[in-house]
Amino acid sequence: CKVRQSIDVYQLRVSGFGKYVRAGEGSGKLKLSLQFPAGDSMNSLLQISDGQRLHTIEDIGGVRRRTIVDLDKVRERLVINNTSILDPTVSMYLAIGGQAEALRKLCQQYEWTEIRQGQHAGREVWVLSGRLASVPPRVRAHAPTDVQLQSPNQSGLLPTRARVIVGKAPADLPYWLYQVEQRRSDTEVTELNNKSNLYLVTEWSEPQLVSQTLADEFFEATSNNDPFFEETTNYLPPAPATAGARQPLTAAAALPAPY
Fold it and tell me: Which residues, at least 6 apart from 91, have a Cβ–Cβ distance to it below 8 Å?
């Protein structure tokens, strides 16, 4: 799909564009590339995973940073079997990088208060609206990256409202995330008296099913001598996985969530 993002903050607008490809079928392979023009320079973000490691390479303002997450180490902490695919927290732990991680954050940061049917780009969709949650959701993941989502934010740059558009099922791409709108009004003041009007839109538009098998090399990060930071620990479930990594399933929790 094509990816477009625009951010309005402090009376400035930053826009980005790029492309997202995922292999699917539980492979963990994905490639997300984004570019953000700024004056005479071009900032960029690349996420690429071969199913074993997720590489994230940022080049912002001429400063390059590379991080790696070992996906196999995350899977080793989980109990993966025929029933665990119904456990939403297992899905969250496996949602690393790309569109999946965007959903992982959204469903834990916001309390969803409204859902309605609609149309988007000629497709039947669900439109979910929500507000920043005041307490953690009952069903959630407990890796450090998830715990950080519940930390107090005093910068004034955390959106407090969200609207999400996802595809209905049955469809060729059920539950596809088409668009995310997030906003914060400058009337909302933080504890440090910070305030700003913030509006963020991310579009995962014009999705197409891949008609051919992509070569393994397509999902391999370019080898170079850049130093990298290991971020695997941020995504590891508590050990052992059965002790606090997730809650026992109830009949309601076992149903596939609309997001």
Answer: 85
Please report the DSSP string for the chain in residue order.
-EEEEEEEETTEEEEEEEEEEE--TT--EEEEEEEEEETTEEEEEEEEEESSEEEEEEEETTEEEEEEEEHHHHHHTS--STTGGG-HHHHHHH--SHHHHHHHHHHHHEEEEEEEEEEETTEEEEEEEEEE-SS--SS---SHHHHGGGS---SS-S--EEEEEEE-SSSSSTT-EEEEEEEE-TT---TT-----EEEEEEEES-----SPPPGGGGPPPP-----EE-GGGGPPPSSTTTTSSPPP-TTTTSPP--
Tokens 């609309």, located at residue: 258
Q: For residue 147, count CB atoms less than 10 angstroms from its CB and return exposed for 0-12, middle for 13-18, buried for 19 or more.
A: middle
Nearest-CA neighbor of 19 among 38, 41, 46?
46
List the chain residues with pLDDT less than 70: 154, 190-194, 240-259
Q: Tokens 């390059």 identify what position?
A: 64
On whether the CB atoms of residues 114 and 96 are closer than 8 A, the answer is: no
> Pick from 13, 16, 52: which is nearest to 33 by CA?
16
Confidence at residue 170, expressed as pLDDT on a 0 to 100 scale:
86
pLDDT at 62: 85
CB neighbour list of residue 145: distance below 8 Å, 6 or more residues apart:
234, 235
Phi-psi region of 123 (alpha: psi -120 to 50; beta: other; left: phi over 0): beta
- What integer pLDDT is reported at residue 243 of this predicted model? 39
Cα 114 → chain centroid: 21
* pLDDT (0 to 100) of residue 192: 62
